[in-house]
């Protein structure tokens, strides 16, 4: 049983950035840039022509010449630009920001008053789910560092003078290490810039926002968090699934499908998570779902418990597979769902108006987000 839904609808010599120049510069040769293209996506691993024009300052090499990669076509192009290509522009931007602060009298003896860093949650993808505060902060930023799961529609709301820097991660490819992201945030904040770190969902729910906040605060940088609608809440609401419901689910548990050391075992949670009176929401769980499902059933969760897997939730590209737990992994594979996909397990899934009426029927339903 499965139903697939498709939505119709720089810097002084004392800056930590210059301190880590060689560290950042040695990761990949310039020639490793990938200029391949693929189908359109609402997320930022692929970019529109407008996005390329917006942040084309990243595509200049050390000689000031445009890269050989052509602008992306209307179908989008994968962004895997090297830090080596960006260093000259980033250093120049740091210098401009410092000179601006000096002209405003905010620097004394070659040291500027530090700027603020905002960790901003952008929600699950639909730009209309942003908070008013998030939009205001985005429009005031000098520099925005954004993740893979920040949709292009959200980036279109950024102020016209802000610079954009992609620091996303996906399975098997990290455009920046976490340490490099820390140093970038610190360098621009020390130059007095207003730095916004955009994260999909909520920055403190499986977004490593806590690590970035802790690092910056230890360096004396003020960090402000702007919460976002986490994927569990936004996507469940889109499907009409109550995460808790009196008499059906008295609690909800958010779980990462990633194991810290990799592999197929998602943090040994099967025994504690197998609660029929709770709702389980699994983030980043495509690769570890077969193992998790087996463990949940082994520890007593019914193989027939309702489940849903939602790819690119709340966007126009949303696809949803409904199935019983015992069939979910197979149905996900058959439907070809890819990351980002959220998984909801629990009796509340059956309360969705899109849950199949008959266990024997398989059909395609359309949803409209208004």
Write the layout of secondary structure elements.
Blueprint: E1 3-7, H1 16-19, H2 21-25, H3 49-54, H4 83-103, E2 107-108, E3 111-112, E4 117-121, H5 132-140, E5 143-146, H6 152-155, E6 163-166, E7 169-170, E8 173-174, H7 178-190, E9 195-199, H8 209-218, E10 223-226, H9 231-239, E11 251-256, H10 270-273, E12 278-283, H11 289-298, E13 306-311, E14 319-324, H12 325-335, E15 341-345, E16 364-367
Parallel strand pairs: 1-16, 4-9, 4-10, 5-6, 5-9, 11-12
Antiparallel strand pairs: 1-14, 2-3, 7-8, 12-15, 13-14, 13-15
Please, what is the average pLDDT? Answer: 76
Helical proportion, percent range: 25-40%
State the strand order across the main sheet: 11-12-15-13-14-1-16
For the largest beta-sheet, the strand count, sense and barrel status come to:
7 strands, mixed
- Number of DSSP-assigned strands: 16
Oligomer: single chain
Number of helices: 12
Low-confidence stretches: 6-39, 59-82, 358-370
Q: What sort of overall outline do the alpha carbons produce when their principal axes are compared?
A: elongated
Strand residue content: 15-25%
Spell out the helices and strands N to C. Answer: EHHHHEEEHEHEEEHEHEHEHEHEEHEE
């Amino acid at each position: 049983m499965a139903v697939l839904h498709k939505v119709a609808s720089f810097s002084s010599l004392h800056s930590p950035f210059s301190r880590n120049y060689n560290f950042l510069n040695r990761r990949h040769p310039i020639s490793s840039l990938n200029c391949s293209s693929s189908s359109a996506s609402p997320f930022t691993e692929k970019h529109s022509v407008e996005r390329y024009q917006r942040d084309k300052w990243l595509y200049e090499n050390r000689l000031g010449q445009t890269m050989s990669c052509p602008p992306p076509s209307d179908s989008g192009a994968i962004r895997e630009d090297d830090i080596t290509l960006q260093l000259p522009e980033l250093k120049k931007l740091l210098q401009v920001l410092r000179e601006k602060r000096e002209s405003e009298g905010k620097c004394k003896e070659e040291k500027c008053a530090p700027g603020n860093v905002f960790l901003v949650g952008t929600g699950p993808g639909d730009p209309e789910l942003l908070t008013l505060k998030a939009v205001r902060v985005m429009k005031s930023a000098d520099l925005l560092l954004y993740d893979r799961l920040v949709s292009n529609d959200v980036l279109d709301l950024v102020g016209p003078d802000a610079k954009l820097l992609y620091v996303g991660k996906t399975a098997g490819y990290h455009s920046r290490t976490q340490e490099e992201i820390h140093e970038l945030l610190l360098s621009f904040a020390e130059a007095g810039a207003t730095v916004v770190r955009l994260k999909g969902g909520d920055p403190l729910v499986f977004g490593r926002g806590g690590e970035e906040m802790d690092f910056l605060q230890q360096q004396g940088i003020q960090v402000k968090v702007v919460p976002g609608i986490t994927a569990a809440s936004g996507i469940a609401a889109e499907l009409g699934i109550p995460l808790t419901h009196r008499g059906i689910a008295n609690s909800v548990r958010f779980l990462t499908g990633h194991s810290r050391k990799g592999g197929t075992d998602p943090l040994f949670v099967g025994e504690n998570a197998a609660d029929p009176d709770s709702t389980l929401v699994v983030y980043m769980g495509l690769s570890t779902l077969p193992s998790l499902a087996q463990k949940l059933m082994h520890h007593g969760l019914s193989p027939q418990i309702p489940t849903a897997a939602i790819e690119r939730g709340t966007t126009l590209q949303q696809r949803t597979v409904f199935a019983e737990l015992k069939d979910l992994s197979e149905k996900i594979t058959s439907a070809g769902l890819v990351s980002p996909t959220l998984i909801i397990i629990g009796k509340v899934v059956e309360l969705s108006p899109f849950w199949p009426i008959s266990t024997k029927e398989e059909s395609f339903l359309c949803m409209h987000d208004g």
